[in-house]
Design brief:
Layout: H1 15-24, H2 29-58, E1 65-68, E2 74-78, E3 81-91, H3 93-113, E4 121-130, E5 147-151
Helix pairs in contact: 1-2
């Protein structure tokens, strides 16, 4: 490990160079890219939310009902069905587990307080890219529940 002395004004070392060293160092490696990944995921979620909203409005649907970052990342009432959508920029096994856990928690909530809605809720997972080829069978979900994955490569 190389030690660098940095003066108060950073001397000949630029802030970009300092960040590059931090990103390459074991103590900073995941910290630098973690925030950027989180922002990328947020931007993808924001894009999808606005895209879905404006598509409905442009169709003349003045009754479009959406909630963002509430019941799920995106919740939409469309006809008689409530679509609860988790948005993931990149689907990995851990983020899949997180999405499934949310679907299970929402299903338990509905079963407890609104069992009449169980067959009218569709859990969705929208991803920009995936490291998982297909969704596994999720035996914990009720037989009437649906969890489907949609890959939306619209955003570069």
């Amino acid at each position: 490990m190389t030690k660098h002395k940095v003066s108060a004004n950073l001397g000949p070392l630029s802030i970009d160079a300092l960040q590059s060293e931090w990103a390459g160092h074991p103590l900073g490696k995941n910290r630098v890219w973690g925030g950027r990944r989180a922002l990328g995921g947020f931007l993808f979620q924001l894009y999808l939310s606005l895209d879905r909203f404006f598509v409905e409005v442009s169709k003349g649907n003045h009754d479009a009902q959406f909630l963002f970052d509430g019941l799920s990342d995106i919740a939409q009432l469309k006809g008689n069905i409530v679509y609860l959508t988790q948005v993931k920029a990149t689907l990995r096994p851990d983020s899949l587990r997180s999405a499934v856990d949310e679907a299970l928690a929402l299903e338990r909530f509905l079963r407890e307080l609104h069992p009449e809605l169980l067959d009218r809720v569709c859990f969705q997972l929208v991803v920009r890219r995936t490291e998982i080829s297909k969704l596994p069978v999720i035996s914990e979900l009720a037989p009437t529940s649906v969890l489907r994955m949609i890959v939306e490569p619209k955003v570069a």
